[in-house]
Amino acid sequence: MCQSRSDQPVFVESVLEQKVKMLFSGSIFSITINATVGLILIIVQLPVIPVSTSLSWYAVLVTVLISRCVLLVYWQRDEDKTERNQARWIQYFRFSIFVTGSVWGVGGVILMPQDSMAYQTFLSFTIGGLSSGGMATLSVDRRSVVAFVLPTMIPHILILIQQGEPITYGMSAMLLLFLFFVFLMARKSGKTFLENARLRIKA
């Protein structure tokens, strides 16, 4: 019994360290995808969205992504592996993910054309696909998934509902179902990560 108590802090610290490492290790890929998808989106939406609106939004997105690169560099240079320090880094990471998702949420509203179903569908496809990719890269930490996916999808779903058309109602319902699926998968992936981390520690 005494042995299990002494082992518990080691387990918690080791799992947290593994989680932080996996989240930050995937940052470069995530940042690159966000920048590329954002660029493709504003290019495709140019015929229906003012250039000033598209470029302003993309400039904000790039600024946020650069900030995440800076955060990644600072994390790589930090040699303090204590549990308290790892907890601080994961909070920084979650906040950076939340800000990124919020920028995409704004994009899902201001880049929404009023009279073109084809461009609306493309925007919905972009938002949904990005959320799916976010779930895959952030699956080891359910809070990070929530921090990214919720602010990314909810504003776009609301703007679809406000359109008041049968097809936009259907699109919003599909996105809500997808959102529910994402959270279920994130929960399952998080449990799988904890089980695998426990096995690595015991080994």
Strand content: under 5%
Structural class from helices and strands?
A: mainly alpha
Largest beta-sheet details: none
Order of helices and strands: HHHHHHH
| Rg, nearest Å | 19 Å
Fraction of residues in H or I helices: over 70%
What would you call the shape?
A: globular
- Cα end-to-end separation: 20 Å
Q: How many β strands by DSSP?
A: 0
Spans where pLDDT lies below 50 across 5 or more residues: 1-13
Give the overall average pLDDT: 84
Counting DSSP H or I runs of 4 or more residues, the number of helices is 7
Question: What report would you give on this structure?
Answer:
The protein has helices spanning 2-25, 27-44, 51-77, 83-110, 117-138, 142-163, 166-202. The longest helix has 37 residues, at 166-202. 88% of the residues lie in helices and 0% in strands.
Could you give a short description of this structure?
Helices cover 88% and strands 0% of the residues. The chain contains 7 helices and no strands.
Keywords:
single chain; 203 residues; mainly alpha
SSE diagram, text form:
Elements: H1 2-25, H2 27-44, H3 51-77, H4 83-110, H5 117-138, H6 142-163, H7 166-202
